[in-house]
From TrEMBL:
Pfam families: adh_short
GO molecular function, one term: oxidoreductase activity
Organism: Pleomassaria siparia CBS 279.74
Domain of life: Eukaryota
InterPro entries noted in UniProt: NAD(P)-bd_dom_sf, SDR_fam
Protein name from the UniProt record: NAD(P)-binding protein
Length: 252
C-alpha cells in the first residue's frame, strides 16, 4: 500500500525538523525542503538515527530566490514520483537581511524589504496554490495545510517587515480556510501561532519554560484534529504562548 506524505518547508532544523520527526513516528513519509544541501543531508541523518527505515525525501531549494517555474517544477516532480502528499506545512520563514535585525523601518534597504516578502509570503503562496490539486486528490478522507506564523503579527516596533509578512500569513490562512469550507473541499487549513521556542534559529536568551522545537511540533500535531473539529482557524497550542497572546490583546 502507498503511504501518505507530508511536505515540510524549512525543515532542516527547528520546528520543521520536529514536525518531520513526529510524522515519521506516525508512519508518514516526509519531504524535507531547505536551501542548504549539507543541512538537508544532516537533517536526514538525524531522522534516520530514530527511523532507519523511514520514507524520507530530500529537496534542496532556496525559498527566498526560487522562481515560480522552479516551484512548479518541485510540485510536478512530487506528482511524477507518485508521492501522495496529504499534509503541506508552510514552515519556512525568517528575517532575511544583514544584522541588525531590529531596526527602524526608515532604515530598511529595498532588498531587505523584498527578501522579507519573498521568503515569508511569496513562496508559500505559490506553493500552496500549486499543491491544492494534489492535496484535494489525495484526501483520504481529508488533507491538511498547516501555516506557521508568529505572534509578531500584532505589529512589533523595529520588526515592521517581519510582522507585516506574518500578518499576511494570518489573513491568507484564515481566508483559505473559510474558502475551502464554503466550497466543501476535503481539505483543512489551520494557522499555528508560536511564541518563544528553543530552536536552531532561536537559541539565545530563550524565555524560561519555553518548549524545544521537537516538543512544540508534537504539541501542534497532537492538537490539530481537535482544533479542526471545533472549527478553529488558528491555534497556539503551548499554554504559555496562548496566555501571552491573550494578555497582549488586553493591553492598551
Amino acid at each position: 500500500d502507498k503511504i501518505s506524505w507530508a511536505l515540510i518547508t524549512g525543515s532542516s532544523g527547528g520546528i520543521g525538523l520536529g514536525y518531520a520527526h513526529h510524522l515519521l513516528s506516525l508512519n508518514f513519509g516526509v519531504i524535507i525542503l531547505a536551501h542548504v544541501e549539507s543541512e538537508v543531508k544532516a537533517a536526514e541523518s538525524k531522522l534516520r538515527e530514530t527511523f532507519p527505515d523511514g520514507e524520507i525525501k530530500c529537496v534542496v531549494m532556496n525559498c527566498q530566490t526560487a522562481t515560480s517555474k522552479q516551484v512548479e517544477g518541485l510540485v510536478k516532480g512530487i506528482e511524477e514520483e507518485e508521492m501522495e502528499v496529504r499534509i503541506l506545512i508552510n514552515n519556512v520563514g525568517g528575517i532575511p537581511m544583514a544584522y541588525p535585525h531590529f531596526r527602524l523601518f526608515a532604515d530598511f534597504a529595498v532588498q531587505g524589504i523584498d527578501n522579507h516578502f519573498d521568503m515569508n509570503a511569496r513562496f508559500m503562496t505559490h506553493l500552496t496554490r500549486l499543491m491544492l490539486p494534489q492535496l484535494t486528490r489525495n484526501a483520504a478522507p481529508r488533507s491538511l495545510i498547516l501555516n506557521m506564523t508568529s505572534a509578531s503579527y500584532i505589529g512589533l516596533p523595529y520588526l515592521s517587515m517581519y510582522s507585516a509578512t506574518k500578518a499576511y500569513m494570518r489573513g491568507f490562512s484564515h481566508a483559505l480556510s473559510r474558502e475551502l469550507k464554503l466550497e466543501s473541499k476535503p481539505l483543512d487549513c489551520l494557522l499555528i501561532v508560536p511564541g518563544d521556542v528553543l530552536s536552531d534559529g532561536n537559541c539565545v536568551a530563550v524565555e524560561a519554560g519555553s518548549p524545544d522545537a521537537k516538543t512544540y511540533a508534537r504539541y501542534v500535531l497532537e492538537r490539530v484534529d481537535g482544533a479542526i473539529e471545533r472549527g478553529l482557524l488558528e491555534i497556539s497550542p503551548w499554554w504559555k504562548h496562548a496566555l501571552q497572546i491573550m494578555v497582549i490583546g488586553w493591553l492598551p
